Amino acid sequence: MDVKGVIEHIMLWNHASIKVLDVRHQLLGREIGSRSYKLPASTFLFAAQGKAQICLDGSEYAIKPYDIAHSGKGTLMDIFLTEDAFEYYLIFYRAAIPLTSRQQIVNLLRKSDPFQLPYSFQPCQPIELLALVKQMDEQWQRTGELERFQTKALFYQFVSAVHRQLLDSKGARLETDPAAQAKQYIQNHYAEPITLEALAEMLRYSVPHLSALFKKKTGYSLIDYLIRVRMEKAASLLVETDRQLREIAESVGYRDPYYFGRLFKKVYGISPARFRATKAQTPQTADRPATIIGSSIAALDFRRYIDSENHYPYKKEGRKTMYRPAKPSAAATVMLCLTLMLAACSGNAGAPSQAANGNQTETSAASDANRSTQTSSAPADASSQTQVISTVKGDVVVPAAPRRIVADQYLGTLITLGVTPIGAPGLHRQNPYITEALKNVEDIGDVNGSLEKVIDLQPDLIVTESSDDQGRYDQLSKIAPTISIPYGQLKNIQEELTFFGKLLGKEQEAKDWLADYEKRIAAAKERVHKVIPEGKSFSIIELTDKQMFVYGDNFGRGGQAVYQALGLKPPAAIAKTLQEKQWLELSSELLSQYAGDYIILTSNSHTLEDLKKDPLWSSLDAVKNNHVYVWKEERSWYYDPIAVLSQTEEIADWLTKQ
């Protein structure tokens, strides 16, 4: 088929009324050897695996993996195996050109009817087509009206991709480059779950072979390249829109905005918020988008990652595709506020040093005013009013009894000790275990919060998890003494409460709460170990519509409750891996290896009854024995002391009723 012919066919497809009639996934094995059809409608055949000889009304085609064959209604199609098995998809459709079409279209149809034409070709980008075919098959099996509509939409994408590749190849059979295919697939599907295993399977390569080939061709690992693409897309959204970080994270494939922020920092060297603020200060030219980002994917100063960094919980439902223009003035306002405040403070003497290295650090007027208000009636001995806390940023001088705390993490720990912060990010205020206690806490904005709002609150102490964003830490430190505690530094609830008890002047409250906690945990543990046989294993799994994840003892989803508090164990074969990595994405093939005798499952979309109907899940002993506890993410995600205690007793109640 020449280029002109392909273009004419595209014109006819563009004018046709299309109805998808059926989508079938077939496997032909040696026990049958051949199969014959009289096609009931126009049909695409997509070869997924294996080789076969196909005859279309006597015309023979040698079909290899990813080849596409097409023919019209009434065609006799004979399929003969040339290997042990042949896996393929059939897509039946009906196309009609409206009677009201102009004469040119009618003449083209008479000249060559693309809906009846028999042909085959090998796509130059087959994995894009394989993904569309699999999605069509998945949607078709669900039978609802919306799913039928989605199948039709996917079919249009499939036909468009077929004709685009016909044009690219000019109808010729080309040897395809798997590295180029993988790059193209990542560019088109970066917001979707992508794993090495899935790409290797689609391209029919082993994971090591594909990884080595991709690295040789591009200089990057597949996962490195995927992260680069996602971060470059995110950078554009940060500059061109005013969307919240959470929305941007989801739009490029990351469900957790904190994890997204850490990856962005590794790629660009600064946090997403600071990147946006920095770009907002640079004059932009509307018709010169290249000046906004100023880098292509090949030019980024990229840091290396372990492959597992890609596999974080992903959520594509509700992803926004339309954005309002960005508002660069917000960052400029923040900088102006800081400048004015620092200028006002320039004449103040005696501000405490932020770090023990002797360098004088400026503090905000709000912080100074707040301290003077609190100490005006107190003795003049400053040592009784402050203390020095050792952190990853050095020794920090903080109030001995802070009263106005802004925290972007560790809210549950503060509430446990009877301390209510004055400000916190909205995301944490959704924690169901402490919602009531936070109802009067000021929302300082998305994820880490707005510097502008923090300034307005005039805190005397800021608590943050951020440690790798030095620029943000410096900004926070100018507002008030800032304590940075990286995630994972405090290994358990005992360490966490002991640290914060000292920081907040609540050491006795911490000891009392821990004593009660350990008493209740011991009681729950005793109940559980009376009914759970020795040696039974437990798995912490999260299941979304598209992905599965398994977790260790310090990453939420019930891990702290099950492994740390109740002392239960994961399957022995995976215990070391979980302890080291804390979470992994699971393929369907690996589920049985990671599934324990009991499963604590986080899922917003599945119930135990759903699992029993699923061929994969129903084969697990835990499902067969009803040893699966399903809860939604709002109850399993949090792991502050209050949440862990509640989760532990909740799981213990379930286990003792088994």
From TrEMBL:
Domain HTH araC/xylS-type: 180-278
SMART domains associated with the record: HTH_ARAC (SM00342)
Subcellular location: Cell envelope
Region of interest (Disordered), residue spans: 351-386
Pfam families: HTH_18, Peripla_BP_2
Keyword rRNA-binding: no
Segments forming domain Fe/B12 periplasmic-binding: 402-658
MF (Gene Ontology): DNA-binding transcription factor activity; sequence-specific DNA binding
Entry's Gene Ontology BP terms: iron coordination entity transport
Keyword terms, alphabetized: DNA-binding, Signal, Transcription, Transcription regulation, Transport
Major localisation: other
InterPro entries: ABC_transptr_periplasmic_BD (IPR002491), Bact_iron-sidero_bind (IPR051313), Homeodomain-like_sf (IPR009057), HTH_AraC (IPR018060), HTH_AraC-typ_CS (IPR018062), Tscrpt_reg_AraC-type_HTH (IPR020449)
Keyword Repeat assigned: no
Ranges of biased composition (kind: Polar residues): 354-386
Cellular component per GO, a single term: outer membrane-bounded periplasmic space
Family: Belongs to the bacterial solute-binding protein 8 family.
Name of the protein in its database record: AraC family transcriptional regulator
